[in-house]
Design brief:
Residues 15-136 form the MsrB domain. The protein is mostly beta strands. The chain has two helices and nine strands; from the N terminus they run H-H-E-E-E-E-E-E-E-E-E. The chain has helices at 15-21, 24-30, and strands at residues 50-54, 60-63, 67-68, 76-77, 85-90, 97-102, 108-113, 123-126, 131-135. Strands 3-4-8-7-6-5 form a six-stranded antiparallel sheet, with no helix packed on it. A three-stranded antiparallel sheet has the order 2-1-9, with no helix packed on it. A hairpin with a 6-residue loop joins strand 5 and strand 6 (97-102). The radius of gyration is 14 Å and the shape is globular.
Length: 137
């Protein structure tokens, strides 16, 4: 289900509907706050113009122009699209981090850190399996 406006109505599905709609890896990351193994995402090498969207609901998340090579093994961006993501405090794994999730379906995308490049100084470290890529036409 593709959506073009991240501010549209929230995506609400039952757990069974999410399991049917997502691959097991997507479900583990988006719905159970998992993490994919570093270096495994095909989106790491994606350099075409276009938009990275939520694999759960299709909401646009990041433009290609905000992607950068962080050396972490996960697709990294310095800025999301307006109103595309929300953040919460994540206290798992005996540390405090800032979790990033899709503003529309609340799917877990990754974490944001303050060690990114200008102009924002932020590094949105995203799980590639939680996103799709739509090339510009």
């Amino acid at each position: 289900m593709a959506v073009t406006d991240a501010t549209s109505a929230p995506e609400i599905r039952s757990d069974a509907e999410w399991r049917d709609a997502l691959t097991p890896d997507q479900y583990r990351v988006l719905r159970e706050h998992g993490t994919e193994r570093a270096g495994t995402s095909c989106l790491l090498a994606e350099k075409r113009s276009g938009t990275f969207t939520c694999a759960g609901c299709g909401a646009p998340l990041f433009e290609q122009g905000t992607k950068f090579e962080s050396g972490t093994g996960w697709p990294s961006f310095f800025e999301p699209l307006p109103d595309a993501v929300e953040t919460t405090v994540d206290r798992s794994h005996w540390m405090v981090r800032t979790e990033v999730h899709c503003a529309r379906c609340k799917g877990h995308l990754g974490h944001v850190f303050d060690d990114g490049p200008a102009p924002t100084g932020l590094r949105y470290c995203m799980n590639g399996v939680a996103m799709n890529f739509e090339p510009a036409e």
